Amino acid sequence: MRRAAPLLAALLLGACVAGPPPEIATPAPVLPESYLYAPPPSEGASLAALLPREDPAFDALSAQALAGSPRLGEALARIDQARAGADRAGAERLPNIGANTSITGQRTNPAQFGGSLAPGVQFDTERVSYAANLTARWDPDIFGALRAQERTALLRVDAAEAGAAAVRLALLSEIAASVIDWRTLAARQAELESDLAAAQDLARLAGVREEAGIAPGFDRVRAETQAAASRSRLEALASERARLLGRLATLTAQGGAQVRAALARPGAAATLASPPVALPSELLANRPDVLRAAAELAATDADLSATARRRFPRFDLSAAIGLLAFGIGDVFDEDSVVGSLAASVAAPLLDFGRIAAEIDGAAAAKRAAFETYRGAVFTALGDAEAGYGLVAAADAEASAAIVERESAQRAARLANTRFEAGLTDFLTVIEARRAADASGERAAAALGRARRARVLLWQALGGDPQPTIQGESTRSTSQ
């Protein structure tokens, strides 16, 4: 009982400051049952169909980006860093075994003992000792502080993996949008070149009529002005191409020539896939930013638990066995074997609020993480609602633009036919041509925006499910 008294006293002192961690309410966010602009289940297509996967440029550039993007490489390195932290936290739960050897020389001055030595008593003033020890130390983690720290570290790995998935999602979305913009520029260029050719034909016709004296020179000037406007819009596309090339070079970590070569591959015909049918609740399992926020919330909960366990006593077991001799020839004598075995317990008694302040800080961090999680959930919901709405609006705009283009082109053909028959004047032909020229480019741009809206919806819904990044899931050292 006398030997157990210090242990019991430490337990009682630890109980004076121990207690459960504070409860932080984290209710599940309430999401609507459906999206406002989502299509009926009978009309929805697959999520993967929203990306331009039929375009060889997208396949090539996305593969290059996933293989060499600095942004994705940094995110993957963060996973390795988090895994190393988890391995360290797991190793803390296991015994720590070490070994050491030493040779110590010591010289003692007899005068330091003064006159206290008995007459005739002498001792060796110079002594050399030889030692070799095997040591072991282990924290049995009775109250689970180390387990809570390990759980925190493992959840940080989950958060890092979700962060890498978010980078991958954004990377593919930006590449897809840039490739669509490049194809849209090609479609706009084709429309502008057709407009330029038509305007030049009108200018030549007006010049012939002017030389024949049957039309004023003003008609030729109007036609040339129309051609100059088409040529100006055509030249403006070069700056947009340069911006897209630079953006894709940044995303893929490739040179401009390599990016240009990938974009030079002919793309498939543009298609507008129907938006997929999805539920708002699926965002909680698909969106990487939501998964990351959820992992961070769970990590702060485990960190709060680990901080609260600092109020409990901590046990420590240690042992050592070795050899100690004062002559090199006596090292392996039986009497040279030495050893020790110890058990200790330490508990806070009066820390004047230090641990309580740390617990309050951990509790505040959990509340902040919960609000971050709620923010991520409703950001995802807003992105998805906006994505469905943008697809619906862009499709309506594209349909209207196509109808406008067909009507304007038909009006231009009719005006030209009536002019050749002498039923209308040249000014009517110019005005009809101007309307047709603007409508063709607008229709091409509207189709591009409709395809781009599908990429935004793909990103908003969390993209396609992907395998675990970098292979198998993390397992700690203690597991």
Précis, in short:
The chain has 479 residues and is an alpha+beta fold. It has 10 helices and 4 strands; from the N terminus they run αααββαααααββαα.
Features:
single chain; 60% helix; four-stranded antiparallel β-sheet; alpha+beta; 10% strand; 4 strands
What's the arrangement of secondary structure elements?
Layout: H1 5-17, H2 56-68, H3 70-91, E1 96-107, E2 126-138, H4 145-211, H5 217-252, H6 256-263, H7 283-286, H8 288-308, E3 314-325, E4 337-346, H9 354-420, H10 426-460
Antiparallel strand pairs: 1-2, 2-3, 3-4
Describe this structure in words.
With 479 residues, the chain is α+β, with helices and mostly antiparallel strands. The chain has one domain (30-96, 143-313, 355-460): Up-down Bundle (Outer membrane efflux proteins (OEP)). 60% of the residues lie in helices and 10% in strands. The protein is built from ten helices and four strands. The chain has helices spanning 5-17, 56-68, 70-91, 145-211, 217-252, 256-263, 283-286, 288-308, 354-420, 426-460; strands spanning 96-107, 126-138, 314-325, 337-346. A four-stranded antiparallel beta sheet has the order 1-2-3-4. Helix 2 runs antiparallel to helix 4 and helix 8 runs antiparallel to helix 9 (354-420). The two termini are 37 Å apart. The model is unreliable at 467-477 (pLDDT under 50).
How do the helices and strands follow one another from N- to C-terminus?
HHHEEHHHHHEEHH
Shape: elongated
Number of strands: 4
Architecture (CATH level 2) name? Up-down Bundle
The radius of gyration over CA amounts to 39 Å
The number of distinct structural domains comes to 1
Give a quick account of the main beta sheet: strands, pairing sense, barrel closure: 4 strands, antiparallel
